[in-house]
Amino acid sequence: MMHRPTVYFTKQDLELFSAASHDRNPLHLSEEYAHTTPYGEPVVFGILGALAALGHLPYRQSMALASVALEFRNPMTVGVTYRIEVSETSIQQSLVKIYDAERLMMKATFTFLPWQECLQETIVSEYSGRIEAADRTREDFVVGSRVTGMYAPSASDCQKVVERWGGIYKGRDSGPDSCDDVGKLRGGDGTPWETCNLLAVGARFQIR
After folding, report:
1. Contact 57/195 with Cβ under 8 angstroms?
2. What is the spatial distance between Cα 119 and Cα 187, in angstroms, rounded to a whole number?
């Protein structure tokens, strides 16, 4: 089954995502800076596009989002109505493509697993990763680069992003409001694992 919704990004969406992720890259936030780049205007965060796509997927009862594979083809900007094409390739996987007319902007493959399997693989007693975004330069990234680690965004601002796009909780019986905030995604604050769909998600990127 295939349906074709749309998505539209605003300047406020970029500001909200920046607050949640601590990503303050001026390419996304400053019109003055963006005008000096080949893009000419602020560019939508790639992960924000993925969250918007995730928000259009159906709920999967008793399953949790396990991994995300993203392919960015072209930059997205604010004020444009993009078409989203959703294909349910299997009970465990969805393929989402975002288009500007017929031009492919990004592809996202979302893989879901039974929540019990995700729990066994991701349970941790206490989060000890980075809480501030790393400051990296272009020279830090070359073809074949691989970056690993854990990062904890702002829970309260992340909850606002979730409410805006409705895309994080896509499984379990209890529906999209089963977790109070994104800080509970790993269950470290006492939230029952069975009530939280997204336990821990891995995103895979490729630099070309």
Report:
1. no
2. 9
Q: Are 179 and 190 in contact (CB under 8 A)?
A: no
Predicted TM-score (pTM) of this structure: 0.68
pLDDT (tens digit per residue) in 105-123? 999 999 988 877 765 554 4
Element (H, E) at 122: helix 115-122
Positive or negative: CA dihedral 95, 88, 159, 34: positive
Angle (CA) 73-74-79 rounded to 5° is 140
Task: Find out whether 88 and 35 touch, Cβ atoms under 8 Å.
Answer: no
- 38 contact partners, CB below 8 Å, separation of at least 6: none
C-alpha span between 61 and 65 (Å, rounded) = 11
- Which two structure tokens, joined as six digits, stand for 167? 């895309």
pLDDT of res. 208: 45
